[in-house]
Design goal:
Low-confidence stretches: none
Largest sheet: 9 strands, antiparallel
Number of strands: 9
Order of helices and strands: HEEEHEEEEEEH
Number of helices: 3
Shape: globular
Helix content: 10-25%
Mean pLDDT: 91
Radius of gyration: 16 Å
């Protein structure tokens, strides 16, 4: 069973148990050559077919090589099913690659946008919106169970250098 399927099932379980929001779903998959890949999703609301998430994190404890820029570009190339196309923006001084919604696929200036931070062994996906007067704030984003599975599996593949 894939990591994406496991995290979707964990999120469904949290929902069935009627725990208060936000709910934290977690899943782990062992890698064939040792190590593991872990996914966590912070869910702020749910219904039968979708989740309203504020953050998704996929990480591995195994060093797989490759630059964060290459991983960021691969993640952007794989996630074509999100509401906006992602593109590599920059690598900050801390060595984290930033991937954001491409302006040409966004609804306009001030529209919410996805941002993924790609590190050597971790990818986080969040959504932000510009605040009036400057700055930005986190906003939740809706994912169907199928899209949640795909984004988690694609991030895990990028981190573990799967094709």
């Amino acid at each position: 069973m894939s990591l994406g399927v496991k995290i979707a099932q964990a999120a469904q379980k949290e929902s069935v148990l009627s725990r208060p929001f936000p709910q934290n779903a977690e899943a782990v998959v062992e890698l064939p050559k040792g190590g593991e890949v872990r996914a966590t999703a912070k869910i702020v609301d749910t219904d039968k077919f979708s989740k309203l998430a504020s953050k998704i994190t996929i990480s591995t404890d195994k060093k797989t090589g490759g630059t964060v820029e290459t991983k960021a570009e691969k993640f952007a190339d794989k996630t074509t099913y999100l509401t906006e196309k992602l593109q590599f923006v920059e690598t900050n001084v801390g060595g984290t690659a930033i991937v954001r919604s491409s302006p040409e696929t966004m609804a306009g200036r001030g529209a919410p946008y996805f941002e993924a931070k790609v590190r050597e062994s971790e990818i986080t996906l969040e959504r932000f919106q510009a605040k009036k007067g400057g700055g930005r704030e986190k906003v939740p984003f809706c994912l169907t169970d199928d899209i949640l599975v795909r984004v988690v599996d694609d991030a895990a593949d990028v981190l573990t250098n799967k094709k």
